[in-house]
Amino acid sequence: MAQAVPTFGSPWTALQPRLSQPILDAVLSLGFESMTPVQEGTIPAFMQNSDVVVEAATGSGKTLAFVIPVLELLMRSTTRLAHSEVGAVIISPTRELARQIFGVLEEIIKLGGLDYKPYLVIGGSSSATDTADELAQMKELGPDILVGTPGRLEDILCGRLKRGNKTKSGTITASGGIRGRPSASAQRLEVLVLDEADRLLDMGFEASLTAIFSALPRQRRTGLFSATMSEGLSQLMRAGLRNPVRVQVQVQVQGRHGAGDDGGISERRIPLTLSVKYLVCPPDRKLAQILRHIQSNSAQKYIVYFSTCAAVDYFYKLLRRLLCPTAEIVPGGKQALRSERQRLARLFRVDYSVSVHSLHGQMVQKKRQSTYSAFAALPSGEAGILLCTDVASRGLDIPDVDCIIQWDPPTDPKSFAHRCGRTARAGRSGSALVFLNPGSEETYIDFLALRKIPMAPGAYLWQTEDGSITHDAPEGAVVCETSDDSDDEEPGLGGGEDDGRPEGEEGGAEEPADKAAKKKKKRRGLAVARYPADARSNELIALVRDIAAGDRDIYERGKLAFVSFVQSYLKHEAMYIFRAKELPIIEAARGFGLLHLPSMPELRKRPKGKFERYDIDTDTIPFLDSKREGQRLARLAAAKTKTQQPDKDDDAKLKRKKKKNNTDAWSNAKDEREQVRERRLVRMKKRDAAAEAKEKQLMDQINDPSLRELLAKDPLLVKQMLNQRDKSLRDMVKIAADKRGRQQPAATTQTLEEIVEDARRRRAQVSSDSSDSSDPEDDWEAMARKEKIRERLAAKTKRKRFSFNPGFSDEEGDGAD
Ligand SMILES: Nc1ncnc2c1ncn2[C@@H]1O[C@H](COP(=O)(O)OP(=O)(O)OP(=O)(O)O)[C@@H](O)[C@H]1O
């Protein structure tokens, strides 16, 4: 049997140094009698002025492990903070997590009767006025502790960036930026905490964190917390830690699963109470599996993770339609509703209601907050599903989540542990399931095992004729061939009983070609068993397609979801496991209930023959919303009239559009703009490089001894030459000599190099008009005036400019502004 480190350690009163009485009262009144191991290890070190780097499994109580020391350090500090000064800053990567940390902090302050003012700073205000109101409110309150997300904290502590000097990826360009006044000062800050530090310290938040760190004093305590703290020392240095104490809480297991199979002790990065399973199955069966899971368990709370926002939106609409169909969302009146319900009843039946929620980063903040709160507030015993992206993978402490399902394995492998960690928190039990496609994705099992996340095989769920759920394949289930022939070889199919994949049923006599394919696969190490067909799962897909054929919103969202899924798959971080070549496109498209394969350049080389197109003219699929449908019909009619009488221009436009559609993914408008910008940059760089090369060539010619003498006598010649770089040197000499009528040039005391430098400087400063001026003296005067103005302007700008420090080291200055 497995054993583990205990979930709880010593009582709070055993802490050395002792907690102050108000804080002790507060934690005890929360009903927490003992500390968790991570609290026991972290709180004393952090309270005794050490920097800390803390790594402990999800749900192990890290939030209190930093909230308590933050308050203790502030209470022990002798510094009196002014109204606009803050003493502590806690940074979180997402708004939901920031809100949650703020809630814990507020509660401890309230229960302990402490006189501290925390303030939550997260983005997402719907208007500039709201943001201004929030700022005014904050200034009036004069908070001591700020909890927030990097971008908003940067605005408050460093001043808002007024000029667009942040690139799209968030990095500040070398020219620095012009900022407004900071709304709060962190010059006398005592303590900084980075929750989910590994996420914060990766590149995504670099610019904001650099700015924030530069506004903090060097003399401060810093704590980094995460369930997946990376080892990278550079990250710790970037956060400005000095001799940090490392607290690492390991979960050790004795017995089965992991290295402990031989009776030894193994370590795992996930809580012991969490059981993680994988299910290898073709992608068009995932939806049926999810519904069967819901049906086979009594009312439970599920979180289902997808890789893209579009997929969350689509499945949210679809599952609402499937699980809570009402007359408003089913077109065709009561009869249609009844027939849809009857079809669904064959496939899914529970005697309780299931609420569906969604959460992703592209939702407006208000909706994001309300949907999250509604799901979190579901009482235990009520069934609910939250569909989300990784925005809800870290830190969220949603009560009583029973099961985590991952439709797609995460792009960032670290997210896997965080996603699963939304269940089995603080000693409670929970389960997680991840779907893997047959083939190379099965390597993910070993990949995670190496990262100390052991997984066991999960059971494929079947549905019997009477609708109940079972682990046994129905009798007479026929062998199912994969429908994907994207490759010459079929993608790997399931395995045998032992690994928990659906039981393979071998057909009768094998064709030689079949044998050859099998051999080939064996050589590549892929599984070769076949899946019994799942008629009920196919029925479900047919129902989804019928729904899409009658509801344009679902049809379009499905397409978008599929396109975004394929694109995200192609960018998977673990590309050697999630191989684009082995993605079963046809089955994946069926899994999204598509009516046809969308035209994507990514799919161009894949044969589409086997994707069974739904027999419908997609232009006839209506929106259920009458206003949207009216607008669509009007657009359609206008387009039709235009195509009936195309004039010459339109013809050309259509041709261009057609060509464009053939070459570009239809969802790529944004990417395209970026590509244009990039191409322009490349062109500019090329132009500069060519100009430089030309100038170098010219300088080489100038240094040619035979010309040197001639040029030394005539400084104007050099100037003209540099102004008209495209003409060859000898032509220039000839032109200049003709122009000057072979006059004797003015004597000069300058060396040739000085002359060239002089002329170059003039060329850079004087506009092309003035450089052609016949009187060089006039140029000098104009130039001098311009130069003075320029210098004055530059000095002014320099005073205003934010001093950007790209380093994160200890040597950082005390503040930017
Ligand atoms: N000493 C304690 N005794 C009992 N329950 C506790 C204790 N400390 C924290 N908890 C509870 O444990 C749960 C998880 O805590 P918390 O959210 O801090 O975990 P975490 O380690 O930050 O997880 P994650 O890595 O997912 O962010 C919370 O519901 C919290 O109330």
UniProtKB/TrEMBL annotation:
It catalyses: ATP + H2O = ADP + phosphate + H(+). GO terms for cellular component: nucleolus. GO terms for molecular function: ATP binding; hydrolase activity; RNA binding; RNA helicase activity. It is an enzyme of class 3 (hydrolase). Residues 482-491, 772-781 have a biased composition (Acidic residues). It is found in: Nucleus, Nucleolus. Keywords: ATP-binding, Helicase, Hydrolase, Nucleotide-binding, Ribosome biogenesis, RNA-binding, rRNA processing. Gene3D superfamilies: P-loop containing nucleotide triphosphate hydrolases. SUPFAM superfamilies: P-loop containing nucleoside triphosphate hydrolases. GO terms for biological process: rRNA processing. Residues 43-247 form the Helicase ATP-binding domain. Residues 286-473 form the Helicase C-terminal domain. It holds the Pfam family DEAD. Its EC number is 3.6.4.13. CDD domains: DEADc_DDX55, SF2_C_DEAD. It comes from the Eukaryota. Residues 479-521, 637-700, 737-817 are annotated as: Disordered. Belongs to the DEAD box helicase family. The Q motif is unique to and characteristic of the DEAD box family of RNA helicases and controls ATP binding and hydrolysis. This is ATP-dependent RNA helicase. The lineage of its organism: Eukaryota, Fungi, Fungi incertae sedis, Zoopagomycota, Kickxellomycotina.
